[in-house]
Each structure stands twice: as C-alpha cells, then as structure tokens.
Amino acid sequence: MSLVNVGTVAFDAIETPFGKTDKIIGGACTYISLAASYFTKGAKIVSVVGDDFPQDVIDMFSDRDISTEGLQVKQGEKTFFWSGKYHADMNSRDTIDTQLNVLETFDPIIPDAYQDCEYLMLGNLAPQAQLQVIDRLEKRPKLIVLDTMNFWMEVALDDLLTVIKEVDVLTINDEEARLLSGEYSLRKAAKKILTMGPKYLIIKKGEHGALLFNDERVFFAPALPLEEVFDPTGAGDTFAGGFIGYLASSGNISWENMKNAIIMGSALASFTVEKFGIERLRDLTMEEIADRISQFAELTNFTMEYPFQEEEQI
C-alpha cells in the first residue's frame, strides 16, 4: 500500500540527564519513515534539507526502500536545526535554539510517482503546509493521519482547525488535547475534538502510554517500563510511523486493527528512547520487534477470579 510521509528531515542537538550530543540526525519525517519501513516497503518522503545534509543519510533511506524523490535539497541553504535540553523528569524540555533555515520557505512538492498515495502521514509542520499536501494530491488517500503540537494551536489555530477537518486520525499529547479542547478531562476533551472532523483521536501520554478514541469507544495501550531512557526526542514520531506503517501494510483500518497499530507504534517508540536520535531505530531486527511486542502482550494479559459469589436467593 502506498504510504507518503510529510515532515521535517533535520539536525538536532540534545541534552538529557544521561548525556549530551552535538549535531545529530533528527526530524519528524525521519523518525516516521524509519519506523514505518519495518512494516511496509516503498514509503515516500516529502521534506526539504539544505546542501549541508549528509548524503549517507539519504542513502540510508534508499537502503531501507524509502523513496527520497520528494526530498528537496536546497543548494546554498542550511537544514532545519533544533536544540533542546530535557529536565530531570524527561517529560518536559526547554528549547535552546531553533533555526528554520530551509523550512522557512518550504513548499511541499508532490512528485507524480507519489500520486498513488493511499496512506498519508502529515508529521508536525505548519498547518498551511499540511493543507497544501492534501490539496496537491489528485485523489483523497484512504487514510490521513495528522500530528501537530501546541505551538500551532497558539499561533495558527484557524489554519489548524481547517486541516483537522480534512483528516481521519489526529495524534496529539495530553497537554495539547486539553489546550485544543479547553477541557481537562481527556474523555471530555476527546469528545469535543472528535466533533472537529477526525474519526479517531490518539492522545499520547509519554511514559504513561496512549489512548485511542472513536465515538464512544476507548482503547488504552500502556507504555513498556524500560530500565533506561536516554532520549525521548522522536518517540512520538516513531509511534506515528509504526502506527501508520502497520496499517498500510495490512490494508485494514478497522477499529480492531487500529488497536493493533497502537501497540506496534508503542513498541517501536520504546526502542527509540533507549539511545540518542535515530541510533537505536535505524538497525532493529524483526526478531527484536517481535520480542518487544510479546512483552506488550504479557504486560496487558491477565485473568481474574472473582473473590465473591452471588448471594443465594431467599
């Protein structure tokens, strides 16, 4: 099934309580595409980099059967760069530096070879750019998944609400769900957000798992307890890539299969946080993924014996 991933391919510099990096490979589209490649071959990238971006990383995409025809390389310009420092709890961070560079004038170009898109993953970008991608596809994909963040809710809410109307699945974190809806209860927040257009809502809760909502149905997937978490950067994007990659590989977008896809995304995200950047994600084996999924199954499998009996009828 044809999958197109849109978002940033970038440089990051990260500091956590467990270490610090210089400039490393990052970007939403990078994590999404790598994660999806473990489930579906031939995924396609729409993004932009400068001529300072290393060719060996572009070759890595090709080696994983990820098309880079839609990856623009701007000569004489620099790649998007973000630097951040995580607090001790690893759930909050401070942005140290953001350099938009090529992203400031990014005009997403959809190659003819991408027009067979059946699954579209819109990674975190300006809502206007996300809308442009949808408008430039000749036919509507079978499934459109949108990721966004609180920044766009604060500075481009009207554009964001417009693109939300066009998608099938919205994925945001719990803080963003409360901001977008104005509700503190996540159940109430989900109910309000689902009236904005999407059929499904995923609320990511970091180390506390993820929730999937559709109408009155709710599914919860826990996060796997890990011994070491080095870098949460890209975990949400990895989750999204695993989620849509699994759906694209199966061709099944039912409620039951979306629950499976949530687990697949969670499993891959659990690898990403174990090392900095894409280091852990780029060389996984299918055996490692299968084992991690088995751990999720064991985590959520239980039987219950009722410690009481019905009272005898008199």
UniProtKB/TrEMBL annotation:
<dbReference type="InterPro" id="IPR002173">
    <property type="entry name" value="Carboh/pur_kinase_PfkB_CS"/>
</dbReference>
<keyword id="KW-0418">Kinase</keyword>
<protein>
    <submittedName>
        <fullName>Ribokinase</fullName>
        <ecNumber>2.7.1.15</ecNumber>
    </submittedName>
</protein>
<dbReference type="GO" id="GO:0004747">
    <property type="term" value="F:ribokinase activity"/>
</dbReference>
<keyword id="KW-0808">Transferase</keyword>
<feature type="domain" description="Carbohydrate kinase PfkB">
    <location>
        <begin position="23"/>
        <end position="277"/>
    </location>
</feature>
<dbReference type="Pfam" id="PF00294">
    <property type="entry name" value="PfkB"/>
</dbReference>
<dbReference type="GO" id="GO:0005829">
    <property type="term" value="C:cytosol"/>
</dbReference>
<dbReference type="InterPro" id="IPR011611">
    <property type="entry name" value="PfkB_dom"/>
</dbReference>
<dbReference type="InterPro" id="IPR029056">
    <property type="entry name" value="Ribokinase-like"/>
</dbReference>
